[in-house]
Amino acid sequence: MKKNFKINLTWLALIVAGYLLLSLLIGGGVINPFGVQTISYIGIQIILAVALNFIMGISGQFSFGTAGFMAVGAYAAAIVGMYSRYYVHFYLAMFAGAVVAGLLALIVGIPTLRLKGDYLAIATLGVSEIIRILIMNGGELTNGAAGLSGIPRFTNWQTVYIFVVLAVVFTMNFINSTAGRETLSIREDEIAAESMGVNTTKVKVIAFVYGAVLSSIAGSLYAGLIGTVTPKDFTWLQSVNIIIIVVFGGLGSITGTIIAAIALGFLNVFLQDFGSLRMIIYSLALIMVMIFRPGGLLGTKEFKLSTLFNKKTKEGR
After folding, report:
1. Residue 94 CB contacts under 8 Å (≥ 6 apart), including other chains
2. Out of 146-150, 197-201, 310-314, which region has the weakest mean confidence (pLDDT)?
3. Which are the contacts of 38, defined by CB distance < 8 A and separation ≥ 6?
């Protein structure tokens, strides 16, 4: 018990140290405004990737719906932001967007999650595109294909940092809970899980709803960071980008997802100077990783401080 408490304190210390380090670097001018925005955007990508990894890597369901649920949160925050400059209203809009995304995922998930593999991927892609088309035809409320601009910059790096920590902590606790173990059992063998009394449809729907809510929250943060949203920001390519992060980090590994989001985010920024060659180099880097690490950077493993403590203890002996 004491050892677990020590590990929790260590994680807390690392989180606080990371926050203080970023504060010092940004406050001291070491990281310029472009770097701050890049860090914030990578944080949003981490939330999206954690949400999708929970659906794909933990529950074993293939989803293309990330962009659609992200759009729900983004437009909820954007519409409220157009009429209010108060932070409390932004967070209320974020909550409302998360509720709407969760309800949509529940309505869609009950019939579609009975499907598997490619059929489920096509169904979730269809849902995402339906959401985008509805936004494009939203009239004055969403301003159609032109989107909404002039949204107050509610999101800063501190806000993103806090939400990243909350998303990871909640997700890891969910995975280690009874419901999380049931979800993992479905990923390993759905028929065996069902024979042991696990309500597979219910568990899969819960995982799908949870992922949709996290995606919506990330969408709200995105709208508050960029200051403008358009339907073209939430095409199926956005979902593909998040899938790349999840696969790159390792399906089922939350820490792998975080490392992959950071690595690919900075790689994408550094390659901007290469112009048209950027996507070629980016693609080649991904291909090389998939050749030498087909299971992703960490596979299904998680980085645990307890492993480090055990190694140090053994070395000391």
Report:
1. 73, 76, 77, 216, 217, 220, 221
2. 310-314
3. 265, 266, 269
Over residues 124-135, the mean pLDDT reads 92
The span from the first CA to the last CA of the chain, in angstroms, equals 22
CA distance 279 to 108: 34
pLDDT digits (tens, 9 = 90+) for 46-88: 999 999 999 998 988 888 889 999 999 999 999 888 877 777 7
pTM of this structure: 0.89
How far is the C-alpha of 262 from the C-alpha of 245, rounded, in Å? 9
Amino acid at 49: A
